[in-house]
Design a protein that fits this description.
Length: about 120
């Protein structure tokens, strides 16, 4: 069982930055960040495996950076140059397996409660 607690969301203006954090109760092999907007499917934004290899959705490349502190089992998502379309509830996810497609939500067993990100243009 892995418990996940997200923090760091908020309301910002377009062009500003936010850093999301996800505190995990224990280590896991694959971790990711997902975004959900009302009426739309949950979308994978970024993921990282236990070797530190990241994956990003195209819209996040060059603006977002995912990282993981192994000592504290904390996952981060640094989001720069935020846009209005980045708005949504951001969820942290984890699984004990290495995932071939880490940006697909169905591969993850453990989920946090989410943290809201609102970007105003």
């Amino acid at each position: 069982q892995v418990q996940l607690v997200e923090s760091g969301g908020g309301s910002v203006q377009a062009g500003e930055s936010l850093r999301l954090s996800c505190a995990a109760s224990s280590s896991s092999t694959t971790m990711g960040w997902f975004r959900q907007v009302p009426g739309k499917e949950r979308e994978g934004v970024a993921a990282i495996d236990n070797l530190g290899r990241p994956s990003y959705v195209d819209t996040a490349k060059g603006r977002f950076t995912i990282s993981k502190d192994r000592a504290t089992n904390t996952l981060y998502l640094q989001m720069n140059s935020l846009k209005a379309e980045d708005t949504g509830m951001y969820y942290c996810a984890a699984d004990l397996k290495w995932l071939l497609r880490p940006l697909i939500d169905s591969g993850y067993k453990y989920w946090g409660q989410g943290t809201q990100v609102t970007v105003s243009s």
